[in-house]
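Hi all, long-time lurker, first post. I run a small reading group and we've been trying to get comfortable going from sequence to structure in the token notation. Rather than ask abstract questions, I figured I'd post a concrete chain and ask someone more experienced to write out its structure so we can walk through it together at our next meeting. Sequence below, copied exactly:
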Amino acid sequence: MSSSPRVSVIIPAREAAATIADAVTSALAQQAVDEVVVAAADPATRSAVERIDDPRVRVVGNPEGTTPAALNRALRHSTGDIVVRCDAHSVLPPGYVARAVELLESTGAANVGGRQVPRGTAPFERAVAMAMVSPVGAGDARYRLGGRPGPTDTVYLGVFRRSELEAVGGFDETLERNQDYELNWRLRQKGGVVWFDPELAVEYRPRSSPKALWRQYFDYGYWKRIVLRRHPGSLRWRQLAAPALVVGLGVSAALALFDWRKAAVLPAVYAATTAGAGVADLVRRRDPAALLEPAALWVMHLAWGSGFIAGLLSGRR
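-- Answer (accepted) --
Happy to help. Here is the structure in token form:
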């Protein structure tokens, strides 16, 4: 890496006219960012980007409309030695890029990233945000819970060496979801290091309704199963918890026809565990939205597990 590497920020954007300006502005405010390339899938988002008066900003089309296709298009139209991935609904905090570039240099990693920090405004969004950073909702995922700096399996977003990113072929455009985790798996299989730093924290806006949350997490589970079919070695224990729960609740429902007491054990334990997570956050945060946290956890777990099982049954590769 040169002493003054060229830095590009790439942003996939679809139906993001209301938020893309904030994302781009936060990228432009970073030290040493040479260009921001947005791959926009719709005219309204493209127009919003074009209204930003800065010569470092470019917008390209994304007719496929998917996130990995947008990332690859933006990557091809960028020129940086270092590539910073940003989302259209994210805001990069001050100093984010400078710290990531410094860590790339000091650690020799292929990708550096940190925590996803969910923050909502409406009560249900805040409940989802609490669920996302609870051990009950996130398992042992460091990019959600935090932890010590060091090598890990995946990070939120990511700051890459272009050479490493291109060596593995960029993002897999056949994956509508889970493309970040799959890319990090390929980087690690090639001998690269994915480095986690908890100080690289980027805010994220959770879904605002149970329906939207269900759709999101069903897709997460579905595409996770597809990735595991391709890369069985990438499996982590936390990825089996939700499908095991769905199967267990299905068995409990069938068992209720014969012995309702035994059938009630798993649902009761699960309800108590999720309620406990909500009560703990209510006490710690003093936010009444924590009363909705158990419902958010139910949607996240059951949707993810159902999607995973649907991906298993689909046979799709």
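A couple of things your group might point at:
The chain has a mean pLDDT of 92.
Residues 118 and 204 are 4 Å apart (CA to CA).
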